[in-house]
Amino acid sequence: MARPRVLSGVQPTGSLHLGNWLGAIRNWVDLQDSHDTFFCVVDLHAITVPHDPARLAEDTLSTAALYLACGIDPARSTVFVQSQVSAHSELAWLLNCVTPLNWLERMIQFKEKALKQGDNVSVGLLDYPVLMAADILLYDADLVPVGEDQKQHLELARDIAQQRINARFAPRDPSGEPIAILRVPEPLILKQGARVMSLTDGSSKMSKSDPNEGSRINLLDSPELISKKIKRAKTDPVMGLVFGDPERPEADNLLGLYALLAGLSPEQAAADCAQMGWGQFKPLLAEAAVEALRPVQQRYSELRADPAGLLQVLEQGRCRATDVADATLARVRQALGFLA
Ligand code: TYM
Predict the structure, then answer these.
(1) Protein residue with least CA distance to atom 16, ligand 1
(2) pLDDT digits (tens, 9 = 90+) for 236-251
(3) What is the pTM of this model?
(4) For residues 216 and 198, is the Cβ–Cβ distance under 8 A?
(5) Rounded to the nearest 5°, which phi and psi values hold at 78?
(6) pLDDT per residue over 101-127, tens digit each?
(7) Which residues are catalytic?
(8) What are phi and psi of 220, to 5 degrees?
(9) DSSP string, 17-84
(10) Around Cβ 270, how many Cβ atoms within 10 Å?
(11) Closest Cα to atom 37, ligand 1: which residue?
């Protein structure tokens, strides 16, 4: 029997950070043994906000290299670049024409990002979740491993597939039963790491777009920089690190990071740090972060030293992804009544 499908992606905008790793990529790695896994670098999404053309290709390559450095194995997973599989843009257009505008206008991320952009909001930014739905639906994905912030976009992808395509256009089998055109995906959001918060404000998400570099740890930060950022991270005047105190979001966030990076259960981390002051805890957290990222950074340098090898992985990924995506696109075109 075919293994269930997984698809996910990260935008090649700037450096990937601990949130991208712990909330998403880390969870992709384990799925490779049990699922048929597709991971794309979503470069078309990266141009929904103003971007630097001189950096896009390089950032796309470095993001792909980070996937591999984090443990994505091209022998078991299809790794590819979104813009190199034209079915993504084409399905996005078809889905655009059946998606109600007000579904997009109520997306939280759109509202947040649009607020930051002022007068310069592109149609692409509004349309971002439809392109994301196309990414997922093209591969008949059963599961989409993402961080908490993508939950609403996943709901939208499900609604488009179910209500706007299958319910309206599904052909019928001889007994009159509808034959689904698109598979309706489920999100996979693991509790631990699903929402990594900023180092400078425990109540806002760690994000690539935060202008304060000190708010995030990038996967390629040097050990010195990691220690410096953790040393400067926001704290509170209370002794002892605990989970779940709404008055202490920084303690909750940093203790959660420590558990994940040191490979401890939340209970173990909480027990170890219950009596610790910040001065004792922070060097421990810095060491855990440096040690967890060391093998990723080492593997990343090796991969970047062999650009031809990386391009070969992406070319192989492009071919496999195109085969799967084109078949789905053909199904949708047919259901919508286009001339064959
Ligand atoms: P992006 O690049 O913004 O984020 C990539 C992944 O990282 C997760 N993430 C976080 N997780 C925990 N804590 C954080 N602070 C944090 N910040 C980011 C995101 O939830 C995401 O899983 N729209 C997607 C990209 C995309 C996509 C797709 C994902 C495009 N098409 C199809 C899945 C399937 C995004 O947010 O990218």
Answers:
(1) 19
(2) 999 999 999 999 999 9
(3) 0.97
(4) yes
(5) -95, 115
(6) 999 999 999 999 888 888 789 999 999
(7) 113, 205, 208
(8) -105, 10
(9) BHHHIIIIIHHHHHHTTTSEEEEEE-HHHHTTS---HHHHHHHHHHHHHHHHHTT--TTTEEEEEGGG
(10) 19
(11) 10
